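User: I'm putting together a teaching handout on how sequence relates to shape, and I'd like one worked example. Could you take phosphoserine phosphatase from Sphingobacterium allocomposti, show the sequence you're using, and then write out its predicted structure as tokens right after it?

Assistant: Happy to. First the sequence, then the structure tokens directly below it.
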Amino acid sequence: MKNYYIIDFDSTFTQVEALDELARISLENHPDKDKIYKQIEDFTNLAMEGKISFRESLSGRVKLLNANKTHLNKLVAHLKKKVSRSFERNKEFFKKNEDTAWIVSGGFKEFITPVVTPYHIKKENIYANTFKFDEEGNIIGYDENNPLSDEGGKVKLLKELKLDGRIYGIGDGYSDFQLKESGLIEKFFAFTENISRKSVTEKADHITPSFDEFLYVNDLPRAISYPKNRILCLIVGDVPEIAVHILKRDGFSVRVKAAFEEKYTKDVGLLLLADGISIDEEQLAQADKLKTIGYLGDAKAHISKKICTEKGIVVFDDKKNKKRNAEFIPRRMADFINNGDTYMSRNFPNLILPRLTKAHRLLHIHRNVPGVMAQINNVYAENEINIISQFLMTKGDIGYAVTDIHTAYDKNVLKQLKQIDNTIKFRILYK
């Protein structure tokens, strides 16, 4: 049985609502543009929250647009720059699923088609409304016979299509949830990378903060090994806003607290601490998911370097209290998570790695004792792994081995590497 992926366009495939953006283009020189923008946005939000019918919203917005074909050309150029980041990096998924990954939207083909077709989405798998134009190219309405122009349009369309397979819906609005309500789809995933609507998320089967999360949950091919929204980044104390912004923008699940709360000990993956904040040694010893600590000051008297080393936790700190380190430290933390870099670490060998290209990167942190690398390479040899490149550096009691391999391999290799004697932490990266 085939799996079909029914994907919304506005605020899902793209970061924005296209008709709202078209209004900003077409009404740029209109004396009442701000008032009209607000009316259009209100129509959008009321429909997305299920407070007015979709047709009422669509008709209201189209009448206010005052747009023509030249405005649509500008809109398409704008939307191509506004594709949601998690969709943008997973273009390969659409190539592999070009027959079953569909765009179904209450938007319009005139701007949707040129934006999504570069992502290997077939024109025949794009279902959306179409504009009506006068002889001068002005938008004067839309095809009212299209089921997607009406309330419950996505439900009506799927009933007409009679797809034979499991259907998964991904979207941000009420019209997407209606698919779940109808019983036509297997699961509804509320997409919240760009906007989160409580009226939608509280009814979803799963909240997906990114397309990476959707692919991960469903064990589908994806551009990154693990969704960063699943990695808890705890920021403690009076930390500059720029540092918080950097880690949020990178996609981590960020929480800002005045003090370290014990309830986060077992789940925290990144920890950024303001100068003067200390972490209890017992808590640190129990933080099994913690991968890196950033300290905006000298960490020496506040964090046990010994425990961090024993647990394979990479520490970046700011011994000289430089102003730039409010940006530098969180970026080093993100670079370690994203690429495996340990440059300027307090307790790890300093390693700057090349960017990953069509490979999987295996990070093996181990005790610096004889024979570990021999065991690692025996695993690769016994499994006939094609190694692209390999890096090893040691510092004191820590050994850090990084191996880039071709993507075709038996996943049992990962289990074998984790079981090697003196292994502290093992992680796989790909993006």
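A couple of points you could highlight for students: Residues 147 and 153 are 5 Å apart (CA to CA). The mean pLDDT is 95.
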